[in-house]
Amino acid sequence: MPTLPIPDHFDASKVSAVWRVPYQERAETAADWAKRNNIDIAANDKTRVCLLLIDCQNTFCIPGFELFVAGETGNGAVEDNVRLCEFIYQNLGVITEIVPTLDTHVAIQIFHCDFFVDEDGLHPPPMTPITLADVQANRWRVNPAAAHNLADSGLDDPQEYLIHYCKTLEAAGKYTLMVWPYHAMLGGIGHALVSAVEEACFFHSIARGSQTAFEIKGNHPLTENYSVLRPEVLDDATDRPIAKKNTRLIRKLLEFDIVIVAGQAKSHCVAWTVDDLLTEINLKDKSLANRIYLLENCTSPVVVPGIVDFTTEANTAFERFADAGMKIVRSTSPFETWPGIRL
User: Fold this and answer.
1) φ and ψ of 98, to 5 deg
2) What are the pLDDT digits (tens) for 129-181?
3) Domain final residue pick, 178, 201, 230
4) Is the domain of 97 the same as that of 155?
5) Separation between Cα atoms, residue 168 and residue 59, nearest integer Å
6) Residues 6 or more apart from 79 whose CB is under 8 A from it?
7) How large a percentage of the chain has pLDDT more than 90?
8) pLDDT for residue 236
9) What element of type H or E holds 171?
10) Contact 143, 123 (CB under 8 A)
11) 2-25 pLDDT per residue, tens
12) What is the pLDDT of residues 210-227, one digit of tens each?
């Protein structure tokens, strides 16, 4: 199918802002737009294409919000989402289903300031790494007030669990536990999809008769959850399960003919989601990696000048994914010219 025109309502200058999507108006224009462009319903697709959107939320994508992903350009997530929206509209006729993930948090979680105290009862500031050595030396302890809220978790000793948690991350070669600013708070405006991305997803849903399939992640208090496919830590120190893999979504993704991945951040939630997907692919059939396409110009790494820069880690991860057979592509290249595409 040739590249489609971008609907008149899309305004690239509004991608960096938060606003209300006019649903009824968009529903009517989407139906008319699909008719004028001879767009068939998604149920009739012979080649089933999934667009997996990782955490395209205000908290990561709008300047001034809690964890804006600036990337190397300083405006990374905004630029990424302009290209992403254009990609959705121009390729709407071949995208069978859109699966947006939603990072979802509450106040008392293992990566927030209030979870920890030092010997003076003070909380660590955001962007503080919580290392295994610091925890073992009691530099940081689980806040008793936070522990009270974990009563239902069944932990006998929260501090012992914290040591186990940091050991598990280190043994698996994962990022050190980081204290992040409060972000993607459930019920808050930061949790919502970027307005322009939400509008594009809604437009696709109506035009193609395809329900947008939202995936919640990150709401377990005792583990980070960068990847939508599994939390960082699954068991406590006694091997008792505390969380589990998203086996339903893993199975669903592997049933598509093509899975396209975009979103934020390239160095964290995108990288770990793709890494977990690759792990599942290697367990089932390594050739399935050929079905995965990574939109490299619709994702940016975490970069906080003078504090952290994960650009190298992000690029190294993408190189590894390409070596495994995944395709690194750009949204501005015609879909039908991508390697291996047979519609």
Assistant:
1) -110, 130
2) 999 999 999 999 999 988 888 766 767 788 999 999 999 999 998 889 999 99
3) 178
4) no
5) 28
6) 71, 73, 300
7) 88
8) 87
9) helix 158-171
10) yes
11) 789 999 999 999 999 999 999 999
12) 999 999 999 999 999 999
Copy the structure tokens of residue 81: 């989402």
The dihedral through the CA atoms of 199, 304, 172, 107 has a sign that is negative
103 — pLDDT class (breaks 50, 70, 90): very high
How far apart CA 234 and CA 82 sit, in angstroms, is 36
H/E stretch holding 250: helix 247-254
Q: How far is CA 315 from CA 19, 43, 83, 127, 265, in A?
A: 33, 36, 19, 22, 12
What does the alpha-carbon distance between residue 197 and residue 193 come to, in Å, rounded to a whole number? 7
Rg (C-alpha) for the chain, rounded Å, is 21
The count of structural domains within the chain is: 2
Q: Please give the residue range of the domain that contains residue 329.
A: 21-104+190-337
The answer as to whether 1 is a domain residue is: no
Q: Indicate the helix (H) or strand (E) that contains 304.
A: strand 303-304
169 and 259 housed in the same domain: no
Q: Is the pLDDT of residue 1 over 70?
A: no
Model pTM above 0.85: yes
Tokens matching residue 37? 């462009």
